[in-house]
Design goal:
The protein is an alpha/beta fold. Helix content is about 45%, strand content about 15%. The chain binds phosphoenolpyruvate (PEP). The site of phosphoenolpyruvate has 13 residues, from strand 8.
């Protein structure tokens, strides 16, 4: 059985002061849960978050990193830097990185390898745009993102990766994929992993859904057979709504 994994992507939001407030509220409000809970604040709040989360069930992730170890990459951050401030997870290939910063599948694959080599768990995001869905090429797009994104990743490494299926048209738009639409793509992703690595590995891989997940739609999405968690944007910025989604995550 796969325990649910709920991760919050804070994006470019919150000062240190605001981060302290949200983390305190989350710690206070978090009740007994089997779900794994991860928050991904901006880089500037990671060190503070790490200190505040000591002894709590909430784990820490970052929103991006570079694949190189160090050097002339102005504005970027390395895997070891993230580890030094307590990160265990890193979101890679988010659609905003792909669309706004032109990140390719090949570049994202390099980052996946770097994260794995530094014992960071990649949360590898995949998903189609509205235009791609309308052209009926959702599965081709997702397959290509996965095949290239996981190129040269071993079965043993793949077991530890989290995949987030995030239809771009559902991110920050209030439009959620229906549970059936999401389940169809999740099942497809699991079948691709099974083809590449075998059934046993495929059964272990966590596949999160992301795209306007809210407390009132979370239960239905999370009850689908192949939906193992959620990557949450907007609704993770308020303690009440993020805690509501965590509550909905039952095995
Ligand atoms: C995201 O950006 O990963 C996301 C899922 O955002 P939202 O929940 O706001 O759609």
């Amino acid at each position: 059985m796969r325990n649910k994994v709920i991760a919050g992507n804070w994006k470019m939001n919150y000062s240190i002061e605001e981060s302290v407030k949200l983390i305190s509220e989350l710690k206070q409000g978090l009740t007994e849960t089997d779900a794994k809970v991860i928050i991904c604040p901006p880089f500037t709040s990671l060190e503070t978050a790490n200190a505040l989360l000591k002894g709590s069930k909430i784990e820490l992730g970052a929103q991006n990193m570079h694949n190189e170890t160090s050097g002339a990459f102005t504005g970027d951050i390395s895997a070891s830097m993230l580890k030094s401030v307590g990160c265990k997870y890193v979101i890679l290939g988010h659609s905003e990185r792909r669309a706004i910063f032109g990140e390719s599948n090949e570049f994202i694959n390099k980052k996946v390898h770097k994260a794995l080599s530094e014992n960071l768990v990649p949360i590898l995001c995949v998903g189609e745009s509205l235009e791609e869905r309308e052209k009926n090429i959702t599965k081709d797009v997702v397959k290509n993102q996965l095949v290239v994104g996981l190129d040269s990743v071993s079965a043993e490494q793949a077991e530890g990766i989290i995949i987030a299926y995030e239809p771009v048209w559902a991110i920050g738009t209030g439009k959620t994929a229906s549970p059936a639409q999401a389940q169809e793509v999740h099942e497809f992703i699991r079948s691709l992993i099974s083809e590449k690595y075998g059934q046993e590995t495929a059964e272990k891989v966590i596949i999160q859904y992301g795209g306007s997940v809210k407390p009132d739609n979370a239960s239905e999405l999370l009850s689908q057979k192949d939906i193992d968690g959620a990557l949450v944007g907007g609704a993770c910025l308020k303690a009440d709504s993020f805690l509501g989604i965590i509550k909905a995550a039952k095995n």
